[in-house]
């Protein structure tokens, strides 16, 4: 098991991700954020467990539900919030919004609103790291629905063939937008698809941050040693709908309510308290610290100038 310092860092990361997304739901409802937002509340253990194994110069690619992954990788909160607000002080000067946040400094190579589109792009940073002998790894997050896309199969095939230092991390919450997994896939475990391409595949309880970290650590270590890619499937639960405001008429109220029973933060806090790694005062102090950080980021974002039409033609490569 990880040491105490790492366990406390995992708790901080999960709480930070949860509280930031709760705040985003609130300010979105107030009409302060343009566009759409998609939250991953309930899935914090995956982002924290995987990203806690990475170094600053490693890369991640996230999905449209990628706030948690970017925050766990270490993206700076003030500029992250400004980006989602569509302000000039955001990482992409307000052009990216919630679904396309990127930060070169944090190794957040990009998020993507197109299902499965990040998979082939992630091969680029993985190949570059291998070619330059930089020992960096790439993690590409995607959802269970993306595993039916052609990009998934093409990317896994090439990554295995070239022995690339990449981890394909499937956040399997059982829903592809509005469709349950049993409707579109006969397989129970997506990790089994790794066998077809000659790479390692593992399924883990995605609501257990310790187990996620243990498997992620193995995959990252393997990639750094030049032993190739891994398909890591983390089974977790999506508390809310596909997008903020989704009434979820395609799910029964009982099923929606039952997702809370798998709360990864409650489970982890109970473990830490029972094991006497922390006491309630520690949790309260952590919550106050995170609340202060988030309020500071909100203040920063709301005081930043709104990105205007002049930004449309800046930072354009083609």
Q: What attributes does this structure have?
A:
single chain; 318 residues; alpha/beta; six-stranded parallel sheet; two-stranded antiparallel sheet; 11 helices; 8 strands; 12% strand
> Which class of secondary structure composition applies to the elements?
alpha/beta
Series of secondary-structure elements, N-terminal to C-terminal: HHEHHEHEHEEEHEHEHHH
Strand arrangement, major sheet: 2-1-3-4-8-7
Oligomer: single chain
Q: How far from one another are the termini?
A: 48 Å
Please tell me about this protein's structure.
The strands form 2 sheets. A 6-stranded parallel beta sheet has the order 2-1-3-4-8-7, sandwiched between helices. Helix 6 links the parallel strand 3 and strand 4. The N and C termini lie far apart (48 Å). The model has no long low-confidence stretch (mean pLDDT 95). Helix 1 crosses helix 3, helix 1 packs antiparallel against helix 10 and helix 5 packs parallel to helix 6. The radius of gyration is 19 Å and the shape is globular. It is of the alpha/beta class and 318 residues long. The protein is built from 11 helices and 8 strands.
Blueprint (SSEs and pairs):
Blueprint: H1 4-29, H2 44-51, E1 59-63, H3 67-73, H4 77-84, E2 108-112, H5 118-132, E3 138-143, H6 150-162, E4 166-172, E5 175-176, E6 179-180, H7 181-184, E7 200-205, H8 209-224, E8 230-235, H9 253-258, H10 264-274, H11 280-303
Brief digest:
The protein has 318 residues and is an alpha/beta fold.
